[in-house]
Hints:
This protein is α+β, with helices and mostly antiparallel strands. The protein contains 6 helices and 15 strands. The chain has a domain of 159 residues: Clam (outer membrane lipoprotein receptor (LolB), chain A).
Amino acid sequence: MLGLVLAACGGASAPPLTDPVAILRAGAASLGTLTTVHVRGAIDGEVAIGLGPTGGGGPIALDGTTIDGDIDVAGDALSVEVVAPALLNQRIDLVVKDAVSYLKAPIVTGQRWVREPAGQGVGADPGSILEGLSAFLARPELLPEKLADTRCAGADCYAVRSVVPAAEVRAALGTLGSSVPGLGDAVGDVTVTVGVRTSDLRLVTLGLEVPTGGERPLSIALELSAIGEPVTITSPPADEVDGAPGG
């Protein structure tokens, strides 16, 4: 009787999901409904690099690297800042606006922005990135494993994990995948972990553990927030922009 009273007052809630495939596909489908989103992330671990003709070199630690940005899917625009304290506090800024990508990385461009058509280099159509990721996560070939339910992005979440070849993750992310540190040179399978809110089955966290040949794998953790909220993305001032290198 008590259960009937509570159901009448609050309405019956949907039963919890236990099938990791259903959870992953629901989270993937939610990416297709995004209009705007804020992305915050962290990168830790090491990337192995080769120096000189013999390929000798050593790992570079990226511990403490942060990612912060906004994506406007409807407006085909994005603005992302990456700060790497372990690399002399290097900062990289990327803006995509009106089919043009703008990059500022002091170690390469100084304090100037360089411009090139979006879709070349590190610039990419944000809608195509999300579409590629959504299609990748919904693929029937994936064999996800359901982890214990957890808290993520301030909410109760399902957690699902898959292990996939690095090349497939890179292809799913398009041109962005080729610019993710270490992903292009991964030496093994990538562990992909997603967090999907139990309340609305929206994907709100994405984690990648990438083996890159260093002593520690590269760990990339992303969190989605401010979903559907207004966002303003503008191009850099024209007097601070140069053409593409070599152009």
